Amino acid sequence: MADQYSRTRLLVGKTGIEKLRSARIALFGLGGVGGYAAEALARAGVGHMDLIDDDVISLTNLNRQLLATHSNIGQHKVDVAAKRIQDIDLTIAVRTHKTFYLPETAEQFDFSQYDYVLDAIDTVTGKLELMVQAKAAGTQIISCMGTGNKMDATGFLVADISKTSGCALARIIRKECVKRGIKGVKVVYSKELPLTPQQDPDDPLEPQREGSSRRSTPGSNSFVPGVAGLIMAGEVIKDLIK
Questions:
Q1: Of all residues in the chain, what percent are helix, strand and coil, respectively (each to 5)?
Q2: What is the mean pLDDT of the chain?
């Protein structure tokens, strides 16, 4: 009998669908990357999703974030994402956490309950803490490196963090992973040289988070972050059905 996962079942089989339905993932960050990752995971039928982000949708999100529309400006991203996911499949169990993930908030999460962790946040300290906690719990993790100031959506690669090159953020994370003895972290990254943002003096700068890897507000577009998010989700789905 046909259902909403019939076309997926043709590719992954009944067992693959069952593995996705029983999986629990944690997605940290619901911006340009994370919003698209959440969409793909939901449409694949991942049965249990924890969404972690303390931010609200703003006007400047409209150019690139799947969750952002004029009608939901000012709403929390996790609430908008949860509503959208359950509109796709009401049986998906969604838990939301209005939390800005840093070492100081790490104790709020038990990583041993997750089958996979997706890192779509943009603070170095947060990314490293996610890796530390996931590895300590024996949970798989995939992390997205920088997508800001880039225009080539075809340039993304998937690799172990130790094998990356040509990405400034990956270089920082790679060095810190060596210091902490962290191994076996899958990342999505690009070797594309970032463009220099053309700052309009009439545009107010967005404030930078403490611990952010950004030195200034990056430029972004409607397609590069989304592609990175879809690649992340694809890797997770393929790993979950193995």
A1: 40, 15, 40
A2: 95
pLDDT surpasses 80 at 211: no
Residue type, 92: I
Distances (CA, A) of 210 to 55, 101, 123, 214, 215: 14, 11, 8, 10, 11
Q: At what angle do helices 34-44 and 77-88 cross, to 10 degrees?
A: 20
Residue-wise pLDDT tens digits, 121-144 = 999 999 999 999 999 999 999 999
Q: Spell out the domain ranges in the chain.
A: 8-240
Range list of H helices, 99-209: 124-137, 168-180
CATH 3.40.50.720 assigned to domain 8-240? The reply is yes
**Around Cβ 39, how many Cβ atoms within 10 Å?**
20
Summarised one tens digit per residue, pLDDT across range 40-98 is: 999 999 999 999 999 999 999 999 999 999 999 999 999 999 999 999 999 999 999 99
E-state strands within 74-146: 93-97, 116-119, 140-144
**Residue 193 has which token pair?**
């040289």
Residues 169 and 90: their CA atoms lie apart, in Å, by: 37
